[in-house]
Here is the input.
Amino acid sequence: MSENKELREKLFRNKKNAFHQMNDVQLQDCNAFADGYKAFLDASKTERESVCSAVTLLENAGFSEFKFGMPLKAGDKVYIVNRGKAVIAAVIGSEPIADGVKICAAHIDVPRLDLKQNPLYESSELAFFKTHYYGGIKKYQWTAVPLALHGVIIRADGAAVTVAIGEDEGEPVFCVTDLLPHLATEQYKRPLNEGIKGEELNILVGSYPFKDDDAAGSVKLNILNILNEKYGITEEDFVSAELEAVPAHKARDVGFDRSMVGAYGHDDRVCSYAALAAILQCENPKHTAVTVLTDKEETGSDGNTGLNSAYMRYFIEDLASSFETPVRKVLSASQCLSADVNAAFDPTFPDVLESNNCSYMGKGVVLTKYTGSRGKANTSDASAELVGTVRRLLDSEGISWQTGELGRVDIGGGGTVAMFVANLNVDVIDVGVPVLSMHSPFEIVSKTDLFMTIKAFIAFFNS
Here is the structure.
């Protein structure tokens, strides 16, 4: 090697495709992880379903539900569920808990269409559900695609009814209608973000009138009768329901080489699955390992199942009290990987990202020092010391990694749960998977990036 080339190898930053750093055995493991992830996605279209999937996996791995005051020792595996929408799992470490815990925090809520409290109406002998979109979406992407309906209804008698329809072969699906191009002259004049307006995201749910009834509202009556026979509900029960319309398709391999996974919900279930997989493989950590799968991130993390509430702090305080240690001391010594995605560079739309400081598909797990928007608003901005610790860990484990930010300075922006964890005086950095077509009904990730992210979280828990 020439002196110039040797110097370039030594001094230049050169991030290669993670594929080139994997042997045949690792590629097999990578594909196996991706298959497990696809199964998790298909079973976890909502935050409630994600919690159920996580609890099943945790209990199969020997975790038991945590009860306040229960004795704990090194190696114990416990979990708690917060209102059916968030879950925290922990493996007790061998070192004193006063030395801090290692946290991986991801979110399991995803952009979607929520039904309004009085959703069902009839117009021109068609029945529809009114919706209110949840999280940041491009509204036009949600028209003319098959939708499934998931959620829970609390009936007047207090009984909880679980709804999941549109996923299995043979079940009906639903959709938001759109104009044909021949009649869309005026619609084309709208700005792209108003091509479909929020109040136009109405889901078509039926067209048959009730038999032997030609009065107004007979289609609505027929739908209510079907729902009453199936679920035992009346129209008023929608008031105490949480029903979510989500894309009805399943996770699929993408590309001739099957190198990618396309699915609804990568943001942020790809990192949630990685954080869950890491805690499932955690056996005898030095520091207590904690995985948090939280709700409400897509709407700002407010609410009692979001990380702007105190439930994670309370859980760690309960763990600390088992060892007669003040939670303040534990949190101040703790580290957290805020497990969230970043925007992958898309060469079709290159101008929104700055090429030297964005993430790329296939180059490994992404370290995002700061998120926020423009003047770094609403971000925790990880310290140089923490970034240095994480990069040394990844290098020592042979894990492919890269850095990223969410768009050009005056264009981009976005938030994660990092700032809420940082507000507890915990050192935190965003670490996750780059995603194409983020927040769309069909997002895309690289299998190698998922594999490297799982490895990164495992290494973090074991460090």
